[in-house]
Amino acid sequence: MTGKKPQDSLVIMTELVLPNDTNTFGNLMGGRLMYWMDIASALAAMKHCGSPVVTASVDNISFESPIRLGNVVHIEAKVTRVFNTSMEVHLKVWGEDALQQYKYKSNEAYYTFVSLDPNGKPRSVPSLIPESEEEHKLFDGALRRRQLRLVLGGKMKPDDATELKAFFLKD
Amino acid sequence: MTGKKPQDSLVIMTELVLPNDTNTFGNLMGGRLMYWMDIASALAAMKHCGSPVVTASVDNISFESPIRLGNVVHIEAKVTRVFNTSMEVHLKVWGEDALQQYKYKSNEAYYTFVSLDPNGKPRSVPSLIPESEEEHKLFDGALRRRQLRLVLGGKMKPDDATELKAFFLKD
Amino acid sequence: MTGKKPQDSLVIMTELVLPNDTNTFGNLMGGRLMYWMDIASALAAMKHCGSPVVTASVDNISFESPIRLGNVVHIEAKVTRVFNTSMEVHLKVWGEDALQQYKYKSNEAYYTFVSLDPNGKPRSVPSLIPESEEEHKLFDGALRRRQLRLVLGGKMKPDDATELKAFFLKD
Amino acid sequence: MTGKKPQDSLVIMTELVLPNDTNTFGNLMGGRLMYWMDIASALAAMKHCGSPVVTASVDNISFESPIRLGNVVHIEAKVTRVFNTSMEVHLKVWGEDALQQYKYKSNEAYYTFVSLDPNGKPRSVPSLIPESEEEHKLFDGALRRRQLRLVLGGKMKPDDATELKAFFLKD
Amino acid sequence: MTGKKPQDSLVIMTELVLPNDTNTFGNLMGGRLMYWMDIASALAAMKHCGSPVVTASVDNISFESPIRLGNVVHIEAKVTRVFNTSMEVHLKVWGEDALQQYKYKSNEAYYTFVSLDPNGKPRSVPSLIPESEEEHKLFDGALRRRQLRLVLGGKMKPDDATELKAFFLKD
Amino acid sequence: MTGKKPQDSLVIMTELVLPNDTNTFGNLMGGRLMYWMDIASALAAMKHCGSPVVTASVDNISFESPIRLGNVVHIEAKVTRVFNTSMEVHLKVWGEDALQQYKYKSNEAYYTFVSLDPNGKPRSVPSLIPESEEEHKLFDGALRRRQLRLVLGGKMKPDDATELKAFFLKD
Fold first, then answer.
1. How far apart are the C-alpha atoms of E141 and B101, rounded to whole Å?
2. Which of C71, C83, C68 has the alpha carbon at shortest distance from C144?
3. pLDDT tens readout for residues E46-103
4. What sections of chain D are H helices per DSSP?
5. How far apart are CA F91 and CA F79, in angstroms?
6. Judging by beta carbons within 10 Å of its beta carbon (0-12, 13-18, 19+), is residue A8 exposed, middle or buried?
7. Is pLDDT of F171 > 70?
8. How far apart, in Å, are the Cα atoms of F33 and each of A11, D166, E153?
9. Which DSSP state fits A141?
10. Which of E143, E71, E66, E73 is nearest to E110 (CA)?
């Protein structure tokens, strides 16, 4: 079985910020954005594995620039690495003020999904072969992020998280 | 100025999983849950600081048990620690199958909010005085989690994250 | 079979008033509030009987204080009394202006639900044993409210509504 | 100033029951129906008074026949009587199974609205002149229903509710 | 089998324009209106044929007057003509400013639906017998509109669209 | 002032078909799709002109293949031609069954938007310079489609619609 390319899983989503998506300051609520990001990344994961998927985890997300009412949200999602039955998906999010022709970075994130067979049990996922330099970098970092997830979830001892330790001890 | 108690910020939210909240397996979508969690924790933060707030970041979330269509979602949110103009909020989420009288843990999470003044600028937040043992534990861990956020956000060098390093190098 | 306590059925719901929930004055629409109240009380009824339920009736509701856009809605629902296959649920609703740290009574209401078996037929409900003074008062008043429902629904002659008549003729 | 006719305030609303409107039995949730009824009757009240209105109260509603997923909801709303700054609106609700060409009564209800001036203060409402026999009957009964609202809301002593007492003591 | 009357399929829909239905100018978005029009006309088609229907096509729609936030949308839909397994439905849309007691024409449109049997295959539709003068006019024009649909859909050569050609070459 | 390219206005939208978007056959409702298409094309128009826009008209849309619950909707929108203060936008819509890795054409459409100045009055739009062969073809056809809109809207006599007549009378 040959692997698939990250590019094959690319999902581009565009949404308009409507009144009900905003807080009293007229800015997009973080939870609403995470909802769209979940759908965009789930679709990327499904394109890669061709099976239904469930969200297994979401990594730290930091919201930089608020996105305003009436602005546009751009989301790009692409699978970065496969771990047997799970996939890590990388997301980039921009806001755009169409009237001012101004586009700005909002945040980046990593969502992880598990592929399911028709009985709802985890199922092997086709391998992924990164191509571009950025895809290789994302592929390499995925191991460290996975260790962080396992340590934070209490499923790995910090001492066994080799990649992660190296990251924190580099000077 | 005297500090406030975590208990004063407690928010209890109950939601019913409706068809549009579910994926094709009939399970609550992760993004929909994060949306509710964002509102519950934002309300807890607002109760503490008495100002509007914006979501600054969300820590790693790991989704354990899927919550089914027609089940109930219980969310409890409480401020754990204050960092000048920001607040960390801890969330516990359960699912409940009312027909089978069965309640199960879904996940835990930490959301961070920034308090805003009427011009939308960050504003000091009243201090927080933990009371129960669990509140003290959450208060203590908040420092390490904050360092992780800063390191992951590229705003702190791993080497300066003293608490975090101790965590990864312990034993 | 031993009875259950009202407290076991308690449901606490918290909602944020978003733009689409409001009329042109920026106040929560009554119908939107009744929608949330229906879900909160249905969940309380399901917790008591452990079966699916359908809304049978809603008693007079009087809306006192308008709840503003951006304010919080607090709903508490608890079963008050059981009538063979149906349950009366009492609701208390408050609004809260988190910025002004101000909480105010919005309204009280009674919803009645019928418990259903898997074929959709009415099904006996476990008995309810009130404990607190307030629970006893709600339990006692339930008979009079039920008579009012039956009279208004044309299913009981006013003359047979003993409790109700006593209420209207007391001086 | 001449009065207006009930017919001038008639609002006809038609809605389709979608998946998210239903409980796990596939029946329209009572709360969703009350939401639509609130909008239909508010529109009828606004047509009569030409001002914004707020829901003041809802009378007892009894849900007879469940309305199924995919069925149609028909709502008719018409002002029945005016009380200085408030209006009572009568609603009739039917379900319709378009595939079986079958239309069935769901319920009737009375909603009361207060008319507001631009400052949000109660404002006098044009008088209403009933025409048909049914309109006269609804007009006459409105007094008794109003007394019931006042008594239930603790704003009138049962003993002063002359019309209401006559109703309960008749024959 | 006797035919049915257009009047039997009449559907009257009334909707209130809420914040989330509007663009940044506070006007009803065209897409939201087309959504309501689709439901209203699908219900009219279902009333005529007594089977589920799917939207086959929508004719040119021109939006005349913007409908404002807080205004009311009135939609009337009625079957105009039957073509074996499909039905053309005519829609008229008005906006209404209840506060100014002012009602204005928004647009007209034609939606076409296909009737389906339980296997999802097209199914014959009862014939339609126009009665009023307007219904006859709509019935007659339906042939020309159908030719236009077929020509635009590449399913008929312009040269074979006799009615349509006559229309463009008249005078 | 130099013109802009169609490619600069490209908007790619991806949506997941959720339960509430479907009819009783589990297929995406036409009206829901037209709602998404309206937003996608409005965003394309706004990217081109840098001003708010309102939907002026929608051309004939023919729905070919139904899109199933759980499938993905792909929409691509691009400005085709400018007419002083208005823009025609071309849309292509595909459905995708991610599980079967199968993507299929759903329909094509043309939406027309008017650009508005801050007072809500029509405003001149930058010119458009088509580049690719397909863009030239869409640019050329836009004149004929515009004549059809004007004729159907009663704003142009069929006899004056030169391009359109040529189309219907060709060979």
1. 61
2. C83
3. 999 999 999 999 999 999 888 999 999 999 999 999 999 999 999 999 999 988 889 9
4. 30-49, 133-152, 162-169
5. 9
6. middle
7. no
8. 19, 57, 18
9. H
10. E143
Q: Domain ranges for chain D, please list them.
A: 6-130
Half-sphere exposure of D126 toward its Cβ, with a 13 Å CA cutoff?
A: 19
| Pair F104, F71: CB distance under 8 Å | no
Question: Structure pTM?
Answer: 0.95
- In total, the C-beta contacts within 8 angstroms joining chain A to chain E are 10
| Residue A106 C-alpha, separation from nearest chain E C-alpha, in angstroms | 21
Question: Minimal Cα distance from F24: which residue of D?
Answer: D70
Residues D116-169 have pLDDT tens digits of 998 889 999 999 999 999 999 999 999 999 999 999 888 999 889 888 888 777
Establish whether this prediction's ipTM goes over 0.85.
yes
A50: chain F residues, CB-CB within 8 Å: 98-101
Residues 74-133 of E with CB under 8 A from C: none
Per DSSP, D91 falls in state: E
Selection from C15, C13, C17 nearest residue C68 by Cα: C17
E11 CB within 8 Å of a chain D CB: yes
Q: C18 at the B interface (CB within 8 A)?
A: no
CATH number for the domain whose boundaries are E6-130: 3.10.129.10
Q: Nearest residue on chain C to B46, judged by CA atoms?
A: C98
Average pLDDT over chain E, rounded to whole?
93
b (16+ CB within 10 A) / e for B86-96: bbbbbbebbbb
Helical H runs in E1-111? 30-49
Please tell me the predicted confidence (pLDDT) of residue B24.
Answer: 80
Mutation to test the B interface, candidates D21, D24, D28, most B Cβ within 10 Å: D24
DSSP state at residue F159: G
Q: Record the tokens describing residue C72, joined without a space.
A: 């919080």
Phi-psi sector, D70: left (phi>0), alpha (psi -120 to 50), beta? left
The model's confidence at residue B133, banded by pLDDT at 50, 70 and 90, is very high
Listed in order, strand segments (DSSP E) in chain F are: 11-16, 53-58, 61-62, 72-83, 86-97, 102-115
F to C contact (≥3 Cβ pairs closer than 8 Å): no
Give the separation between CA E14 and CA D78, rounded to whole angstroms. Answer: 14
Residue C42 · residue B15 · CB < 8 Å: no
**pLDDT tens for each residue of F35-91:** 999 999 999 999 999 999 999 999 999 998 889 999 999 999 999 999 999 999 999
